[in-house]
Design a protein that fits this description.
Elements (H helix, E strand, L loop, with lengths): L8 E5 H6 L1 H11 L2 E6 L2 E6 L2 H8 L5 H4 L3 E3 L2 E3 L2 H12 L2
């Protein structure tokens, strides 16, 4: 039985995350990497790919949030309104 792949988590300061945000997004989505962004040495936010978010954080996300709503350049894209609706439903608002 194959082992479940554990995503890598790296810490980086906010100023670096700000200047490298596009690259961090690519690495999070394609390589399943996770990043903890710190400010003044304290963890503030986590950057992770959308698929990892659905698998790890939002197992109870509504079906419409799991289905991509747009297709661009042969790749499926999740629309922001659908993602916001899924998060709101998870938060019970």
């Amino acid at each position: 039985m194959p082992k479940k792949r554990t995503p890598m988590t790296k810490q980086l300061p906010a100023f670096l995350a700000r200047t490298q945000f596009g690259q961090l997004m690519e690495r999070a989505s394609k390589n399943h990497e996770r990043f903890i962004v710190t400010k003044n040495g304290q963890a503030k936010v986590v950057i992770l790919g959308f698929e990892d978010f659905l698998k790890e954080v939002a197992d109870t996300a509504p079906a419409e949030a799991r289905e991509p709503t747009e297709k661009k350049g042969g790749k499926r894209k999740q629309s922001l309104p659908v993602l916001e609706a899924a998060i709101a439903k998870l938060q019970g608002t």
